[in-house]
Write a structure and sequence with these properties.
Elements: H1 2-17, E1 35-36, E2 44-45, E3 53-56, H2 58-62, H3 70-73, E4 79-83, E5 91-95, E6 103-107, E7 110-111, E8 132-139, H4 143-146, E9 153-159, E10 167-175, E11 179-190, E12 193-207, H5 215-220, E13 227-243, E14 246-261, E15 273-290, E16 295-315, E17 324-345, E18 351-371, E19 378-398, E20 402-413, E21 417-430, E22 435-446, H6 450-454, E23 466-479, E24 484-502, E25 519-540, E26 544-557, E27 570-578, E28 584-593, E29 596-599, E30 603-606, E31 609-619, E32 624-631, E33 650-658
Parallel strand pairs: 6-9
Antiparallel strand pairs: 1-2, 3-8, 4-5, 6-7, 8-9, 10-11, 10-33, 11-12, 12-13, 13-14, 14-15, 15-16, 16-17, 17-18, 18-19, 19-20, 20-21, 21-22, 22-23, 23-24, 24-25, 25-26, 26-27, 27-28, 28-31, 29-30, 31-32, 32-33
């Protein structure tokens, strides 16, 4: 039913996109917004924010790989991304060296972290980029603003919102690995109503996730099969301005992904395993201004539903039914809740944001044996937890140059534990020199996941919340009338009470006798520190621009000094935008990643690599443009995850039409 509804919605959007509308296309050049909403839970100019925040524009998203939303995120300093065997595979993001579950992921301010995941993370392969207008990445501990999971920071996907005359857009491309993608949207407003509808679909035959372009593995397994994926998604966002300070808004988003994957272990690691993943989210918001706009009330209600199903095949000694094991594992997670937020404007005393939140999460998991003997659907976990929160943030301007914020939050995870967190920031502007100094400090926390608490085989109900303390300081500098804009940030964080999985063979084994495969305990400590550098340089005005994003990261296990798994020390991205004419754009992109280790205790070294991509587009007129992009054009052989393949030289081309 979900697939049929998505297909119908997508078809409708594409049909509308082809209507010969009379509205003229917007043709203004890309420009990052002056206002962000994630840094302090309310709209504010970037110049006043003391937090380290990066914005990924809609244009960057549109010109990146439509089958991999994270490619656009690679432009953000401080983010490290790993795709397990290319687009469609499990995709994880680490922010400032934190674990994958220590980054809170939101869509329009509503969390989408998976309640059924072992670490409570979000798989970025589940989502289509077509609905997103921009991405705000808030770095450092942010639990004082957003609660559990926001230890490393927050990634907030902001969906498209309609305004002005009706506008239709369709973008399609095809190319290597049997890849085809089409996305469409319709946005606008009429009277008090605003609307935005999007839809998109992608297909790729892909390549073998295990072993592809890794000579030793291809020699051992000469007939590796392709692992492709299909994705279908759509969204709707409707707003109504009732006047007199009353606004109503609602949104719906859904995405369905089916992808093949490999077990990557055992005698025959290249297996015909497949997974399906569904994400559905619906929300409603009412905003009311009172006291002539001095006090604004906002009430949010939301429901996020995540389903994942893995049909995993394992070969024991040969590819035949006798020695083949096939198990279906189902994960169903729901998050339902409501949030109230008030914003009080206090004139010279600044503003006060305060509110409360309640959330009910459920996790249900099942297994079904298919081979060698078919079994019944067997429940594994069926648990729920409630979290109630109170928060407040005071923003205080001191004169025209200095802005300070102080905030705190209390989260009560019923029958699990309670934690208190705080955060403070400062921003100081020297307008005459285009300089902003900023600093922030705060604490973060992450409640144990339902899997870590209640897994029958490995769970520990007495687990406590993970904790960290982090701080950063930086400078944003504009030079030569804005031709050079540089941002430099130093950061550090200490993590404690981290939840680790302990093997039963460990010294002084803490697991119960029944936990024969291991258990979760609070034992680990880690520290991270580093430097983030971002820059935009207008080398030749109107002809050539350079974008730079660089991260230096030192992330170690305090128990033994070992580098944490999958954390490269150096990560850099360069993009040179060349515009020979006002219609033609050429952009070579270089990504360079230093060596890292695939597993804990510096096991499984993954070598450094440098990959070169190329994007080009030509505007035929105000409505039509054609584009082409090449991935890994210099044929770099590299891995993001040990023994998993990555793209070879690949070419894609398509067109974009706007009415």
């Amino acid at each position: 039913m979900v697939i049929r509804n998505l297909a119908a919605g997508t078809a409708a959007v594409f049909a509308l996109s082809c209507i010969n509308g009379a509205a003229r296309a917007q043709s203004s050049p890309e420009r990052l917004p002056d206002v962000v909403v994630t840094a302090d839970r309310t709209s504010e100019p970037i110049s006043k924010s003391g937090s380290a925040i990066s914005v990924v524009s809609g244009e960057t998203i549109a010109t990146s790989n439509p089958g991999s939303l994270v490619d656009a995120l690679r432009t953000v300093p401080g983010l490290d991304i790993t795709e397990t065997g290319g687009p469609g595979g499990t995709t994880n993001v680490r922010l400032r060296g934190g674990n994958t579950g220590q980054t809170l992921v939101m869509i329009d301010g509503i969390r989408v972290n998976d309640p059924t995941a072992a670490s409570g993370d979000y798989d970025f392969a589940m989502f289509t980029p077509s609905a997103i207008e921009r991405i705000e990445v808030l770095k450092g501990p942010q639990s004082a603003l957003y609660g559990s999971d926001a230890m490393g920071g927050v990634i907030n996907f902001i969906s498209k919102k309609g305004s002005g005359p009706a506008q239709f857009n369709v973008r399609t491309e095809g190319g290597s690995y049997g890849t085809a993608s089409t996305n469409g949207s319709m946005t606008g407003s009429t009277g008090p109503w605003s609307y935005a509808f999007t839809g998109g679909g992608q297909h790729s035959n892909g390549f073998s996730r295990y072993g592809y372009r890794i000579p030793a593995l291809e020699a051992r397994f000469p007939n590796l099969e392709n692992d492709g994926y299909d994705r279908l998604g759509g969204s709707a966002r409707i707003g109504y301005d009732a006047g007199e300070g009353v606004k109503l808004e609602t949104g719906y988003l859904a995405s369905y992904t089916r992808s093949a994957y490999d077990a990557a272990t055992g005698t025959f690691p290249d297996t015909p395993s497949a997974t399906t993943k569904q994400l559905q989210q619906v929300w409603g918001r009412a905003t009311i201004d009172t006291l002539d706009g001095v006090l604004t009330h906002s009430v949010n209600v939301f429901d996020t539903h995540v389903e994942r199903s893995f049909n995993e095949t394992t070969y024991a000694t040969a590819r035949n039914a006798i020695t083949t094991t096939q198990i279906i594992s189902d994960y169903i997670g729901d998050s339902v809740g409501a949030e109230y937020q008030a914003t009080l404007k206090m004139g010279p005393l600044g503003s006060l944001v305060y509110g409360a939140r309640t959330q009910h999460e459920t996790a249900q998991t099942y297994t079904t044996a298919i081979l060698p003997t078919r079994g019944f659907l067997t429940p594994v976990i069926g648990k729920a937890q409630d979290t109630n929160s109170l928060f407040a943030l005071w923003s205080l301007p001191i004169g025209e140059r200095l802005n300070i914020t102080v905030g705190g939050r209390v989260d009560d995870v019923v029958d699990v534990g309670r934690f208190e967190t705080w955060r403070t920031t400062a921003a100081y502007n020297i307008f005459e020199t285009g300089t902003k100094f900023r600093a922030s400090a705060g604490t973060g926390a992450k409640a144990p996941t339902l899997f870590q608490l209640y897994s029958p085989a490995n769970g520990t109900p007495s687990l406590a919340s993970e904790e960290n303390f982090g701080y950063d300081a930086g400078i944003d500098q504009s030079l030569f009338n804005g031709r050079v804009v540089v941002s430099l940030t130093g950061f550090a964080a200490d993590y404690s009470n981290l939840i680790n999985f302990v093997s039963p063979t460990a010294v002084a084994n803490p697991c119960l006798a029944s936990q024969t495969t291991g258990c979760y305990i609070n034992v680990a400590r880690a520290e991270t520190n580093g430097i983030e550098l971002g820059g935009n340089i207008d080398i030749l005005p109107g002809l050539m621009k350079l974008n730079v994003a660089y991260t230096y990261l030192h992330a170690v296990d305090q128990a033994n000094g070992a580098i944490l798994a999958r954390r490269p020390k150096n990560l850099a991205r360069f993009a040179l935008t060349i515009t020979p004419t006002d219609r033609w754009l050429i952009e070579p992109r270089i990504t360079s990643v230093s060596k890292r280790f695939s597993s804990a205790n510096q096991v499984g070294q993954v070598d450094a690599y440098t990959r070169v991509d190329l994007y080009s587009e030509y505007k035929i007129d105000a409505n039509w443009k054609v584009f082409a992009r090449g991935e890994n054009i210099l044929n770099e052989h590299y891995q993001e995850v040990l023994n998993f393949g990555t793209t070879g030289p690949a070419a894609y081309a398509g067109f974009n039409a706007t009415w």
